[in-house]
Each structure stands twice: as structure tokens, then as C-alpha cells.
What we know:
Elements (H helix, E strand, L loop, with lengths): L15 E5 L6 E8 L7 E6 L5 E5 H4 L5 E7 L5 E2 L1
Antiparallel strand pairs: 1-2, 1-5, 2-3, 3-4, 5-6
Amino acid sequence: MSIMKRKEDLPLTPGTRFEKVGLWGSVWTVEDVFRPHGLPNHARLVETNSGRRMTVAESVLRDPECFAAAGVATRFGDIER
Length: 81
């Protein structure tokens, strides 16, 4: 049994973390999830190290060529994988 969750199993909720593929150490945390009128779910992300922010569609987060699952932050700041 793998201890890593598949991206499809991770909830798209605040605290979920994803690593940007191709950028070692670039971990992004979901800050907010919303649904723009007539569009699919989107997530507002904040990068752990720099504080940079971006907004992407859920489908981009689930695309293995763009992001990899990095776990879910707990209220204690730890990461559950």
C-alpha cells in the first residue's frame, strides 16, 4: 500500500498542496476554491517559499504534466501524505 495519495484522491480544499512539475521545491498551497460563472472549479494558490500567488483551474492541478500531489497541510503545519 502506497503512503502517497493520488491527486484524484486529494481534496481540492484550502490546505491541499501541490508541487509544480519541473520546478524542484516549488510547493503551492490551495488558499481558496471557487467556481467562476460558467467555468469549472478554480483554486487560488500561494507558493510556500516566496508567497507568490496564482489562480488555476482544477483540471490544471490534476494534470500530471503540470502539478504533482504534495499532501494536505494540517492545522499544525505538518503535511499528511
